[in-house]
Amino acid sequence: NINFYGQDSENKWQFSFGVNAVDLDADTSTKPAEFFDVQDNWNVSKSPISMISLSKYCGNNISFGLSGSFNTISRYTSSQPSENATNEFLAIDAMFKYDLSDLFTVGSLEPFVGIGPGYTWFEDQKYFTGNLSVGANYWFSEVFGLTFMADFKNNYDDIRECGRTKRVAKATATKAAKAGAIKACGATEAARISNRPKCRCIR
Q1: In angstroms, rounded to a whole number, what is the distance separating the alpha carbons of residues 170 and 183?
Q2: Number of neighbours of residue 142 by Cβ within 10 angstroms
Q3: pLDDT by residue (tens digit) across 12-56?
Q4: Measuring CA to CA, how many Å separate 89 from each of 16, 42, 83, 99, 122?
């Protein structure tokens, strides 16, 4: 991304634009080297400008911003063949960003981390996401620079579905346990009855 104006108490607003890439195959089990598998997994936007953002410095190295990005997806997960299908991807995100440059720098790069919610449209789906970001700014001057940033988006629907699955599994296990207890109770009662002294009726 290309930035105009560095963010501090003197210059509170920052406007950025640039190109984005989407990797649908990346998750928490992805190895670091696999994040850079550009040829097989990255969907790089063909538009020279596919992402814009505007943020404001709030103080104490914290800024808040809104961004929008779009892409065309043709590379899917390894378990989901694309079958030459392409789908549009659109995302709107909000982010609280914390500038780490007061703590450390990497050469001329000023690192930062961010967190915030987002909303994504993909295929015929739309869903809220929770976003984690990490990146760094490189400033050519006080008003012009480059930003390198990676976002991890977690679908809230997946979280809710996981919660529902766990609740259903727990409820099923509870019912099974209760059924087992009732069955055991029935067996105990049957055993108790069978151990009673037997009476024979004489007519």
Answers
A1: 19
A2: 11
A3: 889 999 999 888 776 666 666 666 677 777 888 888 899 999 999
A4: 20, 13, 17, 29, 5
Q: What is the pTM of this model?
A: 0.67
Q: Say if residues 187 and 193 touch (Cβ distance below 8 Å).
A: no
Residue located via tokens 């670091």: 32
Written as six digits, the tokens of 181 are: 């207890």
State both tokens at 9: 């108490």
Cβ atoms 131, 93 nearer than 8 A: yes
Could you tell me the two tokens for 53? 């953002």
Q: Which of 105, 120, 7 is nearest to 65 (CA)?
A: 7
**Which alpha helices (DSSP H) does the chain contain, by range?**
38-41, 156-194
Nearest to 17 by CA among 60, 54, 67, 51: 51
